[in-house]
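Lecture notes, unit on binding sites. The following record was shown on slide 14. It pairs a sequence with adenosine-5'-triphosphate.
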Amino acid sequence: MAPAADPRADRRQRSPFRPHAGQPRLARDAPAGGPSQRSEGRLAIEKTLSAENDLVLNIAHAFHSYGATAALRDVSLQVSRGEFLTLLGPSGSGKSTLLRVIAGLENPDSVERMELHGRDITRLPPNLRNVSTVFQHYALFPHMSVGENVEYGLRIRKVPPDERRAAAEEALKLVRLSSKYDRRIHQLSGGERQRVALARSLATKPDVLLLDEPLGALDERLRLDMQVELIEIRRKTGGTFILVTHSQEEAITMSDRIVLMRAGAIEQEADPKTLFETPRTAFAARFMGVENVVTGTLAGIDAGVAAVRVGDHVIRGRPIGDPAAMAPGAPVFAAIRAERLRFDDATAGANVVGGTPGTAIYKGKYLDTSFASAIGPLVVRQWDTERGAGSDSHVSFRPEDCVVGVLRQDDVA
Ligand SMILES: Nc1ncnc2c1ncn2[C@@H]1O[C@H](COP(=O)(O)OP(=O)(O)OP(=O)(O)O)[C@@H](O)[C@H]1O
């Protein structure tokens, strides 16, 4: 079998999006010299240096409160060069606070380490950190043209006019607004304004681009288009992006890695597929859109299959998380996606649960039917919207489609 492609390979290519002349460059360059001249020891040192160079942002143990509200509770975050990282979480979980701390707009109460390309930025004012933020509400200057807005960040950095103009044109080309250089802001649509705000940030060639719900004000069609555009821009520039969103769909679509936040702390961080398929807590399961999360007690684990007692019923699933915590009798959750439940006849080894179909809701592409079952209310998704639930008296699901993990005290509904 051919080896799997490394999904980060494209990120490691050198970015065509280089710093401006005179712009502070925080990254240390890799040492020179061909491989033939290097000793093993030297190679080891270079490997370490190269790993350090890949690490753009390194935050260890950040805490921040607003009065009695703990907005960040011991948050540590490492972001690699060229990574598209998303901070995901419900309202008030601390995403924007973390972004503001990175930008220097908020001083954390305490932080053990906060480095950009290995340089301590803890006490560095925002204008001396090479990061840029795109906000939901654009924050463009209405009295300036598109081009003047895009050049703004470079003007205050005293970049010469011809270099400014070239950088602004390059950034406007990236967001497909080359022809609008002289337009006034009020002559633009909402989507175009957001692209100008993006171009303004890109023009400064930041070490990290911070995106604070940048698509939140756009209508759905535009939002979906801009998601694809942002992915493309990240790929073309090789930049490091940190996005804040409360939309799991947006996070899954756009990210290399998702950091799921809850009440100021990191709940789980993983690539989108892992977070989607293997949420480690009931909160993560619910937030990632798992329709069916039931709770029970662990009866035992045999041959890698967890048996969960829910009332008088036992269902089997895939155990995840710390095996030491998965002792018989432990409170656990079982999470099953609606599309993994079936009304059809069960395959061998599947869980079968009796009950009564309830209301079917037509969703266009699929049909969601509620099902009052022996393990609690469930939702069953069918892609064949014509078929319906009929008078089915049971649903089935495979143990591998049911994630079983320890139920935390604060996850008890
Ligand atoms: N300036 C402030 N003064 C007081 N409390 C604040 C301030 N900013 C944020 N908070 C509180 O800190 C907590 C974290 O807020 P934060 O804005 O970081 O969350 P968020 O996840 O970005 O939420 P949202 O998605 O609603 O923007 C919340 O409880 C919020 O009410």
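Take-home: The first helix runs from residue 9 to 12.
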